[in-house]
């Protein structure tokens, strides 16, 4: 057996795990002013694009199950960022919509992507390569 294969520094999963932890630290700092968590920020990103979505659509888009998503959406509703309403057409479906307060956070958040890229210390070309590679990787992993 190849002993190199079992070294921690040769594990791509560990590199991805460590990178994710470091990026989350950066996001925690950047999102502090908005008073939202990273997961809540992701919900806001989707809603800023569409303004409204069902819980099911949000779960599919964010790769989150309803057991994780529902309590988070309740907290966001309590903080006045969104509303949750049963669909008139299908009572099993819950529609999530931004409030004015949730919509207003968009302006404050516009600087976050560029600040994160700046914190990564990657030049634009490397950032684009990383983005492209991760996009390809995720498409392949999700089809397995």
From TrEMBL:
The keyword Transcription regulation applies. The keyword Glycoprotein does not apply. Gene3D superfamilies: Winged helix-like DNA-binding domain superfamily/Winged helix DNA-binding domain (1.10.10.10). It is found in: Cytoplasm. PROSITE patterns: HTH_MARR_2. Pfam families: Staph_reg_Sar_Rot. Its main location: cytoplasm. This is MarR family transcriptional regulator. The lineage of its organism: Bacteria, Bacillati, Bacillota, Bacilli, Bacillales.
């Amino acid at each position: 057996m190849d002993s190199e294969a079992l070294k921690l520094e040769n594990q791509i999963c560990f590199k991805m795990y460590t990178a994710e932890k470091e990026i989350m630290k950066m996001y925690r700092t950047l999102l502090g002013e908005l008073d939202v968590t990273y997961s809540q920020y992701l919900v806001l990103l989707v809603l800023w694009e569409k303004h409204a979505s069902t819980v099911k659509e949000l779960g599919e888009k964010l790769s989150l199950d309803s057991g994780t998503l529902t309590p988070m959406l309740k907290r966001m509703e309590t903080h006045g960022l969104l509303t949750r309403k049963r669909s008139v057409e299908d009572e099993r479906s819950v529609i999530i919509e931004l409030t004015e307060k949730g919509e207003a956070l968009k302006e404050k958040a516009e600087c976050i992507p560029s600040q994160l890229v700046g914190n990564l210390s990657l030049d634009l070309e490397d950032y684009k390569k990383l983005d492209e590679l991760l996009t390809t990787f995720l498409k392949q992993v999700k089809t397995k």
